[in-house]
Amino acid sequence: MSNLKILVVEDEEAIREMLVMVLEQANLTVIAVGSAEQARESLADNMVDLIILDWMLPGISGVELARRLKNEPGYKELPIILLTARGEEEDKIRGLEIGADDYVTKPFSPKELIARIKAVMRRSGKLSESGLLSVGDLTLDAEQHKLTIAGRSLEVSPTEFRLMQFFMTNPDKVYSRTHLLDQVWGRSVYIEERTVDVHIRRLRKILAEYGREELIQTVRGFGYRFSMAH
Fold first, then answer.
1. Do domains 5-123 and 132-226 have the same CATH topology?
2. I need a surface site. Which of 35, 44, 174, 179 has the fewest CB within 10 A?
3. What class has domain 132-226?
4. What is the per-residue pLDDT for 179?
5. Who contacts 18 (Cβ-Cβ below 8 Å, separation ≥6)?
């Protein structure tokens, strides 16, 4: 799971620090903030794979932030685990009804939390049992930073690797250049949109050597799509 980035939103400093320690020990990259407003700022500047969100936050509550994020196209697919001291069944149901992907009740063991994260990431398609992403005979190994077609390694740059990782995690969906820049390069980095075209061309050239350049399709007027169907 070392390629995954987690956003922790928890207003109690001691719990926040404990969560950071537990997640970093599991080789996860962690961003930790104390409010919904700070979470919004972090999401504007960082691409994260999952949010661990405390139910009770000052100002905008965690459950309200989760509800809002799940109603926004850009964050609808972003997995959220709600963290709370509430154990009542109706609260758990309410959390899941607004779109949260799981629910962990305090106190919890570090092992339980990591197991829940792995389960949610597997369900979202961002983590397989073996840590591998496979689409047809194309396989991406995030741990080893390897991309292969039918067992043959492809020589790609770190940026092209991240681009393929994003495409393979989100197949058959059309993404604009702006969205790809946000997701692969990060919103805090200013790069021209044509940079996306340059990397797409390089990837297609590499895939063409294996007769697979059609995997990345241009959707005129919209952007690009990764698909095994042509």
1. no
2. 44
3. mainly alpha
4. 86
5. none
Ramachandran angles phi, psi of 2, nearest 5° = -65, -15
Within 8 A by CB and 6+ apart from 192, the residues are: none
Give every CB contact of residue 131 below 8 A, 6+ residues apart in sequence: 1, 141, 142, 143
What residue ranges do the domains of the chain occupy?
5-123, 132-226
Supply the Cα-derived Rg of the chain in whole angstroms: 19
Stated pTM of the model: 0.58
The answer to whether the beta carbons of residues 8 and 33 sit under 8 Å apart is yes
Q: Where are the alpha helices (DSSP H) in the chain?
A: 13-25, 36-45, 62-70, 89-97, 110-123, 158-169, 177-180, 194-208
108-152 pLDDT, tens digit each: 888 889 888 888 887 776 665 556 777 778 888 877 788 999 888
Class of domain 5-123: alpha beta
**Calpha distance 82→101 (Å, rounded):** 8
Q: Mean pLDDT of all residues in the chain?
A: 85
> Is the four-CA dihedral 28, 4, 112, 92 of positive or negative sign?
positive
Sheet holding 174-175, edge to edge: 174-175, 223-226, 216-219
Q: CA–CA separation, 92 vs 86, rounded Å?
A: 8
